[in-house]
Write a structure and sequence with these properties.
- The complex is a heterodimer of chains A (230) and B (301).
- Chain A is an alpha/beta fold.
- Chain A has helices at residues 42-49, 75-79, 97-106, 112-125, 141-153, 171-186, 198-204, and strands at residues 2-9, 19-26, 31-35, 57-62, 65-66, 82-85, 159-163, 190-194, 207-212, 215-220.
- Chain A is 32% helix and 24% strand.
- In chain A, the strands form 2 sheets. Chain A has a 6-stranded mixed sheet, with helices on both faces. Chain A has a 4-stranded antiparallel sheet with strand order 2-1-4-5, covered by helices on one side.
- In chain A, strand 9 and strand 10 (215-220) form a beta hairpin.
- Chain B is an alpha+beta fold.
- Chain B is 69% helix and 8% strand.
- Classes of the chains: A alpha/beta (230), B alpha+beta (301).
Amino acid sequence: MIRFDHVSKQYKNTNRPALNDIDLTVEQGDFVFLVGSSGSGKSSLLRLLQREEIPTSGTVSVDGIDIGKLANRKVPAFRRTMGIVFQDFRLLPNRTVFDNVAFGMEVIGQSRSEIQQRVPEVLELVGLEEKEKRLPTELSGGEQQRVALARAFVNQPRLLLADEPTGNLDPSTSVGIMKLLDRINRTGTTILMATHDVAIVDQMRKRIVQLDAGRIVRDQERGIYGHTGF
Amino acid sequence: MRTSFLAREVSGGLRRNFTMTLALIVSVAVSLTLFGTALLMRSQVDRMKGYWYDRIEVSVFLCGPNSLAYTCTGAVTDSQRAAIKAELVSLKPTVQHIYYESTTEAFKRFKEQFKGSSILSQVGPDALPESFRVKLDDPKNFDKIASSLKSMQGVESIQDQRKLLERFFQILKGLQTFALAVAVAMLFVTVLLVMNTVRVAAFARRRETSIMRAVGASNASIRLPFIMEAVTAAVFGAALASASLIAFKYFVIDLRLAPKWTVIAWVTWQEVLVIVPWLFAVGIVTAVLASGVTLRRYLKG
């Protein structure tokens, strides 16, 4: 589903590439942890996949389409095929839980009746059906991340990108989020998750792609984090 | 994007940014009012020109008993008067109509024009000179007939009414240019204000826009709420400007000026109303362009 073919990315005014000759294949339905220290290139890799950035060399393709060559006007449609979750949740503070999730559908022009039907379903999936009228500030961090997950998943994307989704959460809350991601993964959604969270990676026993200074130093099925002593 | 969603985004954005929106509306209103005023002045000048150039005449004043001009030796004689008339007739078709006004007729007209004025008591029936009032095919041909008449015996002076009017129109034209210049300056200020307002709004809502981009909203639908906010403010501004022009036409021109200055042809309602769509067009185009350019710079695609 995802192919990185000799991908390098060098940002302007830097002398070291953020990604250096990356080769990576991810199949539909995979669950992949991207691990590595800060600045190892995890976020750059995710940004290339969102087409926030274009590779300096090499090709990134999703479903056979070279997204570096995608016309600007086709980028929004491309992004609709994926859900994105951030470390800082990125909820709209002045909208209720329901409206935050509905926002993901509203901006792409879904009808009111579809929204009314789909949002409660997704909120139930993340376990927040009781709290749809609350504002984000009235929720715990874990609940806020659940709302963000609901928003990312509401349009039923085939690919979900998560950039340190448990980075701001305590360990027990993180476990809940991971269970949810696992459930979403089992519906067939591919998940790429960048993380520092050793406990979670070790517990999940999923594929691990480890980056260091822009290179892939490990790609292991059912791996654990501590393998190389990070 | 559905319209109800857009409408909520726009009204929410305007309310959150209320003071800036207000400044924007006032600025648009002032610049468009000035712009409208300049357009209105142009119609007014055109109308007056059309009205007066049609009636413009050259007055050939004939010598009276006390005239001092070198072509005068006492009052004009019958033969001199006949010679002048013959000369005028020979100047056809430059000269189109010739109308003789005697001293008594001139006095009668004068009395009418200055009805109720104290100047009447100081002017006797013989004080006004007799004259030929000549209508030309084109007011610009004044010099042609002036050169052939000015040295004739019995002609005291030749007066070109166009010269008097031209002066007046120059003043109006100056005012009109001034209003237009101020309007352009204000429009420039408005453009900067739109840009700044949109920039602030885009910054205040960078969270929304980043989420919108992440979930795959099109560039158009991300930018549309901002553009519509600017356009809404511009529409309010244009409405205020139109209202003030209409109020000026009704309260100032129709109720105050027109009854007093009946000799002037005032701008009609049609001419005022034709300006209104222009005000809206200029306001909306300005808002769209200024906000579009700003968003291109501050919201990356």
